[in-house]
Amino acid sequence: MIIETPSKVILFGEHAVVYGYRAISMAIDLTSTIEIRDIDGNEIILNLNDLNKSLRLNLNEIKNINPNNFGDFKYCLCAIKNTINYLNIEPKTGFEINISSKIPISCGLGSSASITIGTIRTVSKFYNKQLKDDEIAKLGYMVEKEIQGKASITDTSTITYKGILEIKNNKFKKIEGKFEEFLKSCKFLIVYAEKRKKKTAELVNEVAKIENKDEIFKKIDKIIENSLKTDNKEDFGKLMTKNHELLKKLNISTPKLDKVVDIGNRFGFGAKLTGAGGGGCVIILVNEEKEKELLKELNKENVKIFKCKMIN
Ligand SMILES: Nc1ncnc2c1ncn2[C@@H]1O[C@H](COP(=O)(O)OP(=O)(O)O)[C@@H](O)[C@H]1O
Ligand SMILES: C[C@@](O)(CCOP(=O)(O)O)CC(=O)O
Ligand SMILES: [Mg+2]
């Protein structure tokens, strides 16, 4: 059995959302693929194809492991463990899981949440249990929280329910109607600017220590309130850039991210870093009249450009 799972991009509100403030996020068509098959014996074999890493463990170990001791395997292992415990089954059949992904790892596009939700769907189906999306999203959120320490439902909910979500107080609402139509008419570019040196967990914990963070988060919340009322790309882009300026005050931007955002401002309607920051990706709202110049400038910067579509 093979299951493909999307990733996400945060349009506004990363970090603030961890503290109950608003965020807007969108599921995108960069996907991870998880394959599961039964094997003889009572083992679990995990192959992380992109990282060239494999792990074998005994089936009866899984229920009590501490995933945080397993490096890059931790999201996948925690998802397997929590799913088996939630389903309340005694696993008897061994299985092998193969993970491969088109989502650049640890750069703000929710690769961890994609792997987590994909693993939960795969393992529950393997045991012939049909989980509802609400159960899958909840299990996924518990995994991100367990590994990150602090987390919001943003990534796991967006990847489970797809489309565009508004998150507030750790609850979500699907964005539909006029604002959805406006967002669908917007062309976004996702630019992988540089490798991120830190994992989301570390960045979330660093932001937690910033004393005036609530003041900054309140300003971000106001930006989102205004963005929800607009149907003008120029205004929307300016709001994205304003959000970026506030993220800089949380010390999660870098000179490279700022440079790409600057190009996004000069040749597009606006731009901001997306996800936990500290490197990784920038999202740019394209001004189609200047798209050629935008791409020309970006191509001078040794970046990778993803033209992603929203998945619903
Ligand atoms: N292709 C993959 N194969 C295996 N594990 C992955 C893969 N992509 C992501 N992960 C897991 O997710 C972690 C990165 O998560 P995180 O730091 O939250 O970054 P992101 O912004 O991409 O979600 C990796 O260290 C690894 O544990
Ligand atoms: C920083 C945060 O708001 C988003 C993190 O996204 P990512 O793992 O960088 O894709 C954390 C969260 O919402 O759990
Ligand atoms: Mg993540």
Automatic annotation (TrEMBL):
Listed cofactors: Mg(2+)
Kindly state which keywords UniProt assigns to this record, in alphabetical order: ATP-binding, Cytoplasm, Isoprene biosynthesis, Kinase, Lipid biosynthesis, Lipid metabolism, Magnesium, Nucleotide-binding, Transferase
Q: In which pathway does it act?
A: Isoprenoid biosynthesis; isopentenyl diphosphate biosynthesis via mevalonate pathway; isopentenyl diphosphate from (R)-mevalonate: step 1/3
Reactions catalysed, semicolon-separated, are: (R)-mevalonate + ATP = (R)-5-phosphomevalonate + ADP + H(+)
- What does the subunit section of this Swiss-Prot or TrEMBL entry state? Homodimer.
The entry assigns this protein to a family as follows:
Belongs to the GHMP kinase family. Mevalonate kinase subfamily.
What's an example GO BP annotation here? isopentenyl diphosphate biosynthetic process, mevalonate pathway
GO molecular function terms attached to this record: ATP binding; magnesium ion binding; mevalonate kinase activity
Q: Where in the cell is it found?
A: Cytoplasm
E.C. number:
2.7.1.36
* Active site residues per record: 155 (proton acceptor)
Primary gene name? mvk
The record's listing under PANTHER family reads:
MEVALONATE KINASE
Positions binding ATP in this chain are 104-114
What PROSITE patterns is this protein classified in? GHMP_KINASES_ATP
Instruction: Report which superkingdom the organism of origin falls in.
Output: Archaea
Organism of origin = Methanocaldococcus bathoardescens
Q: Which GO terms describe its cellular component?
A: cytosol
Known function: Catalyzes the phosphorylation of (R)-mevalonate (MVA) to (R)-mevalonate 5-phosphate (MVAP). Functions in the mevalonate (MVA) pathway leading to isopentenyl diphosphate (IPP), a key precursor for the biosynthesis of isoprenoid compounds such as archaeal membrane lipids.
Residues in GHMP kinase C-terminal domain copies? 231-301
Q: What sequence ranges are listed for the domain GHMP kinase N-terminal? A: 75-163
State the InterPro entries in the record: GHMP_kinase_C_dom, GHMP_kinase_C_sf, GHMP_kinase_N_dom, GHMP_knse_ATP-bd_CS, Mev_gal_kin, Mevalonate/galactokinase, Mevalonate_kinase_arc, Ribosomal_Su5_D2-typ_SF
What name has this protein been given in UniProt? Mevalonate kinase
